[in-house]
Amino acid sequence: MAATRRDHRDAAQIRPLEIVQGVLHRADGSAQFDHAPTAVLCGVYGPTEIKIRDEKVDRATLEVNYKPAIGSSNTKDRWIEYSLRRVFEGVILTALHPSTLIQLNLQVVSDHGSVLATAFNSATMALMDAGVPMRTVVASVSCAIDQAGNVLMDPDEEEEKNATSCHVFVFDAEMKGALFTDSLGNYTPTQFEHCYQSCKAGAAKVIHFMRAAVEAKLTRQTQQS
Amino acid sequence: MEASGKIVLPGDVLPLAADAKKTAVVRLGPGLLQTDDAIRATQTGLLLANPSNNTWWVNGSTKRYVPALGEPVIGVVVSRTAEHYRVDIGSANTALLPVLAFEGATKRNRPNLLVGAPVYARVTLANRDMEPEIECVNSSSGKADGFGELTGGLIAHCSLQQCQRLLDPDNIVLNTIGAKIPLDVAIGLNGRVWVNNEKHKNVILVANAITSSEFLSHEQCQALVQSLIAKLEL
């Protein structure tokens, strides 16, 4: 039986999602993604001019800047930047825009757990809004295993703090395997497998939601043409 | 042109693979890519097709310009050298505009564009590994064809798709305004529209109408323009 959670969710339930695309009018693409109340805002600039120092002649350079909700960024935030860059370097078709810069700027609007997963989802939506060519859409969901061994999907900050282990998974639209995993804590291979399967199901729901959001936006945008 | 009415996301497989004959030639436009096993979308947008020559492309929404051969663009001169002007056309790299690529320009008779001058030009070189090049003259006829320096007026910024829509001769916004107010308009496909009229308030009206009509339907566009004109005549 599912454990009762602080916000009365089931163990496998994701918090209510919300997507707003095109929030920043000076950016080439932007989006805010909410796993309410956690929210991350992302602005995409590019392909733009690049400093000669960072130039790669055969592909675009990806730069990720991540700013936490409070204070200046620390080592953990640099790890988040690195994770995002590693995943999106594989997802974006960087070879189509050589010697250019694609910049991802993320700002956490409110931090109530599962920030990394929200950041991944926010970046995907912003990249789609900017029209940056990508191989696929990615979606991310995190989960935590509590003291009793229950797998709690999309944990809030309290659940993350009390968990024995936390896991983040990133999947693409084909759902063949995870593009990225990040786990912290003590856990068994069986528990990991269980987390993997739960997050896979969760990511499918997130992608479904992203598709619905894009369709709603585009039908509004293309009513003249 | 025929809309298949389908909205695609990056990674979506094109439905044509299953029913198309193996011998049929399929032409892919922007937003589509052939991978090992299928043809996939790389951008979000509306999947469109031209059945007569089996061409497919994705009409997405972008603000950043990527130069393409032959497209008209509006740029701003950022620097000048003996042989070239360097022009910002909103793409990743600034474009080169040769001093001799103007109507009637010779080594003796050079055009004199200052830094900051807006120009209307055509893209003559668009290669992802090279800087783009533009010209203000039709190189076969030697005529300007309407290209050149833009004097006066105002440059409005909008999305690339909005610019394409404005090029349509039946465009509702420009037609409704044009019926009431005489206008000079230059549309660049890089998300910039230049408008000019004797009166500044008319220029501002047109720029406002263009930038705020992007997400409106035909009827809403008409209503917007009429309300703007009504305010002007008060």
TrEMBL record, chain A:
Gene Ontology molecular functions: RNA binding
Name of encoding gene: RRP46
GO annotation, biological process: nuclear mRNA surveillance; poly(A)-dependent snoRNA 3'-end processing; rRNA catabolic process; rRNA processing; U4 snRNA 3'-end processing
Family the UniProt entry places it in: Belongs to the RNase PH family.
Compartments, as annotated in UniProt: Nucleus
Source species: Dimargaris verticillata
One protein family per Pfam: RNase_PH
Residues of the signal peptide: none
Entry keywords, A to Z: Exosome, Nucleus, rRNA processing
Domain Exoribonuclease phosphorolytic: 13-133
Main location: nucleus
Protein name per the record: Exosome non-catalytic core subunit rrp46
A single GO cellular-component term on record: cytoplasmic exosome (RNase complex)
TrEMBL record, chain B:
Sequence ranges assigned to domain K Homology in this UniProt record: 153-198
Signal peptide: none
Cellular component GO terms, alphabetical: cytoplasmic exosome (RNase complex); nuclear exosome (RNase complex); nucleolus
Entry annotated with the keyword Membrane: no
UniProt name for this protein: Ribosomal RNA-processing protein 40
GO BP annotation list: CUT catabolic process; exonucleolytic trimming to generate mature 3'-end of 5.8S rRNA from tricistronic rRNA transcript (SSU-rRNA, 5.8S rRNA, LSU-rRNA); nuclear polyadenylation-dependent rRNA catabolic process; poly(A)-dependent snoRNA 3'-end processing; regulation of gene expression; TRAMP-dependent tRNA surveillance pathway; U4 snRNA 3'-end processing
Pfam families in the record: KH_6 (PF15985), Rrp40_N (PF18311), RRP40_S1 (PF21262)
Occurrences of domain Exosome complex exonuclease Rrp40 N-terminal (ranges): 26-64
Keywords of this entry: Cytoplasm, Exosome, Nucleus, RNA-binding, rRNA processing
Compartment(s) where it occurs, according to its Swiss-Prot or TrEMBL record: Cytoplasm; Nucleus, Nucleolus
Highest taxon, organism lineage: Eukaryota
GO terms of molecular function: RNA binding
InterPro entries: Exosome_RNA_bind1/RRP40/RRP4 (IPR026699), KH_dom_type_1 (IPR004088), KH_dom_type_1_sf (IPR036612), NA-bd_OB-fold (IPR012340), RRP40_KH-I (IPR049469), Rrp40_N_euk (IPR041054), Rrp40_S1 (IPR037319)
Coiled-coil annotated spans: none
SUPFAM superfamilies reported in the protein's UniProt record: Eukaryotic type KH-domain (KH-domain type I), Nucleic acid-binding proteins, Ribosomal L27 protein-like
Family named by the database record: Belongs to the RRP40 family.
